[in-house]
Amino acid sequence: MLLFLDLYQIELRALAAFFLGAIPFAWVVVRVCKGVDIRTIGSGNVGATNASRAFEGKGARLGAFLAVYVLDAGKGALAAWMGLVTGLLAAVICGAGGVLGHCFTPLLGGRGGKGVATATGALLVLDWRVTAIALAVFFAARFATGQVFFGSLALGVALAASAVLLDVPEAFGDRLPLTVFTSALAGFLFWTHRRNLREFVGRRET
To answer: Could you tell me what percent of the chain has a pLDDT over 70?
Structure first.
């Protein structure tokens, strides 16, 4: 009976985390500030990078990017925290729920963002060291290649690698839920950035 109640609580929190993640902050910011639908701008992606394209001037674009990124990361962090009171596995499940809610928000017909900021926020709660390393790798790859999406892919790989390398024995012991989550997240980020990869390869071939 106690196990059933625990599972029920986790399911409720995961569902709440999904709908928390589903709040499309990029859409809200662009709609309120510019009066347009972000899905009609640039790549159509509901995320910080595309939101910045709706604004003119470097300062305004940077401000929009940071505002949306912090909001999206915040909902990811809150989603993971909702499960953390029950344990690491519940926190991982809720964090994953927040990321999926962001990427497939029912509020916009299942069309959302790519999950980078929301995942970063969730991992900040689960293990801030993993997040710090991944963000450092993100900026290094971003400025080395000049491509934001390369930075995002590098971040995903860094999340998975650092989650294991920071504590190898525990990575396959008590921290196994985090290992599985970061590994799955790395693959998921490659999937959400598949269009960017196709376009990059296409430019290289022409």
So the answer is: 94
Position 205 confidence tier, pLDDT thresholds 50, 70, 90: low
Question: Does any domain span residue 165?
Answer: yes
Please indicate, yes or no, if residue 59 is contained in any of the structural domains. yes
- Cβ distance 98 to 79 under 8 Å? yes
Residue 21's Cβ-side half-sphere holds a number of Cα atoms within 13 Å equal to 38
Question: Counting every residue, how long is the chain?
Answer: 206
- Structural domain harbouring 185: 127-206
Based on the fold, state whether residues 151 and 204 are members of the same structural domain.
yes
Rg (CA), the chain: 17
What pLDDT sits at residue 2? 39
- On whether both 98 and 4 belong to a single domain, the answer is yes
Same domain, 151 and 95: no
Q: Which of 78, 109, 140 is the last residue of a domain?
A: 109
Domain final residue, candidates 63, 80, 109: 109
Entry pTM: 0.89
Cα dihedral value 68, 80, 12, 173, nearest 10: 150
Amino acid at 187: G
What 3-state DSSP class applies to 109? Answer: coil
Give per-residue pLDDT as tens, 136-175: 999 999 888 888 888 889 999 999 999 999 999 999 999 9
Give the whole-angstrom CA distance, residue 159 versus residue 77. 15
Residue 46 pLDDT > 60: yes
